Amino acid sequence: FKEGYNVSEWKPTLPEKMPYYNLSAYCTTEVMRYNVIFVDENGNTVSEAKGVPYNTPIIDIIPLVEEGYSYTITSVDVNETVKDNMTIVGKLSINEYKVTIICGETQTFVFLPYGTNIQEYINENYQPEEGYTLNATFTHTFVPANDTAEVTVEYIPKEYVLTYSTTGSDSDLNGSIIVTFGSKILDNLSST
C-alpha cells in the first residue's frame, strides 16, 4: 500500500481467513492524519494542529501567534513534512517595530519591542539640557504591531521670574517679569 495511507474499506468485505478459491477485491484508502504540537523552548504548548494530513509541509502549518509576536521553529527543518505525530520546538519572541523620532530637522529611527511604552523611552533617552523642558507628541503611546509610530520631540526654553526694584533697594522689590531661559535680560526689562 502507498505510504501514508490507510485502507478505509474493502469491497467485497474480506473473510477472516483465506478461502480455497481465488479472491478479487478492491479497497479505498484515505490519507493518514497526525497531530502536531508546537511548544516553546520551555516545553509550553504554543499551538496544536490536529488531523494534519500525511506529507503536509511543516512550513504550511506553522502557527500564527498573538499579534506582535513570532514563533520560529528551531528543532526541525520547516521544509520537512509531517509523517507521524510530532512535537516541534520553537522560539516565541516579541517582534520589534520601527519608531520614527523627529527632533528639529533630524529624524532618527529606532526599533523597539512590541508594547514598549514610547513615552517612557523618550523620557529616558531624550533628557533636555538644563533650562529646557522636553515636549513630545506621539502617534501611539505603546509600540504597535504592523503600524508606524512617530514621535516629535522639541526642547522648549523654560521661563523664569525676574523680580526687580526700581527704587534701588533690595527690600523694595516692586516689579517682576517673566524671562525665557537664554534670552537677554536687559532686552526684557527695557520692554516693561
What does this structure look like?
- With 192 residues, the chain is mainly beta.
- It is 7% helix and 45% strand.
- The protein is built from two helices and twelve strands, in the order E-E-E-E-E-E-E-E-H-E-E-E-E-H.
- The strands form four sheets. A four-stranded mixed sheet has the order 4-3-6-5, with no helix packed on it.
- The longest helix is centred in the middle third of the chain and has 8 residues.
- The model has no long low-confidence stretch (mean pLDDT 91).
Chain-wise SSE layout:
Blueprint: E1 5-11, E2 26-31, E3 33-39, E4 45-53, E5 69-73, E6 86-94, E7 96-103, E8 106-113, H1 118-125, E9 132-138, E10 149-157, E11 159-164, E12 175-180, H2 185-190
Parallel strand pairs: 3-6, 7-10
Antiparallel strand pairs: 1-2, 3-4, 5-6, 7-8, 9-10, 11-12
- Enumerate the strands of the largest sheet in spatial order, edge to edge or round the barrel: 4-3-6-5
Structural class comes to mainly beta
Query: Per the principal axes of the C-alpha atoms, what is the gross shape?
Result: rod-shaped
Give the rounded overall mean pLDDT. Answer: 91
Distance between the termini: 102 Å
Radius of gyration, in angstroms, nearest whole number: 36 Å
How many E strands? Answer: 12
Uncertain spans: none
Report the major sheet.
4 strands, mixed
Query: SSE string, helix = H, strand = E?
Result: EEEEEEEEHEEEEH
Helix content: under 10%
What is the count of DSSP helices, taking H or I runs of 4+ residues? 2
Strand content: over 45%
